[in-house]
Design goal:
By secondary structure, this protein is mainly α. Helix content is 80%, strand content 0%. It has helices spanning 2-30, 49-56, 58-91, 95-109, 112-129, 142-165, 170-178, 183-211, 215-220, 227-237, 241-287. The longest helix has 47 residues, at 241-287.
Amino acid sequence: MIRNRAILGQIYFGLFVLYLLVPLVVMAGAAFNDSKLPTVAPWKGFTWRWFGDLWADQVMWGAFLNSILVALAVVAVAVPIGTAAAIVLNSISGKVRATLYGFMVAPVLAPGLVIGISTVLFWNQLGNTMGAPGTWPFGRGLHLATLGQVSYIAAYVMLLVLARLQSFDPGLEEAALDLGASHGQVLRRILLPHLFPAIAASAAIAFFQSIENFNVTLFTKANETTLTVYVFSQVRSGITPKINALAFLLILLTLVLALAYEANRRRKARIEAEREAEARRAEAAMLL
């Protein structure tokens, strides 16, 4: 019985992996097919043509640059806000904590369409109140796309950092304060180093959440465009394998970054293991 369950588990895992990978393989394969349609069947021959067309598409590269700039701005704003919110939530309790937590998480539950429209309406109304309707920063543009995305991405950051805070020992803060450290020193030298893994992970998630965002950006971008909006416009006008070439490059970049991260993680683990082994050997030598 146990063996059958193990076999079924392996079969399910294999089917699940195929379900995830087969669409990516088909999409990547279409980037090398010498056909005007984004498909691998029928196969008309290997070609680099679509990568050349992609390289020559200046509009696409401009949209890609806009997406990168917006994503970096979102990280710069959302990570501090989410981290601060998590620290505050971890230091309070009762109804105030529940209320603040609800306000922070609410944008995650709202559709992107609602967030995009709400962002535009809010800043338009604020501009009218200030007597400067349609002017920067009240008019639509990439800055409003950034603020609209921050309104919900900061909640993801807060959740990740708050989870990390559950493993933090408050006694370390109290001991540091008793020894004469200031609150700023405790934050810089004790709390933030403990939170760094969560902050780094939340920054990565915020970056990629911004890159793939469409609904909020579509309503707030004005005359600017980002990568997701550009791809959407290409699909409406008639998609070509040039989009497949772009998708293939993004997948390749993701794999390279993942492998680099894993190699760095294993290197640090190996160094830490060597240090622990050296410490054990030194301790054993002292006991002899």
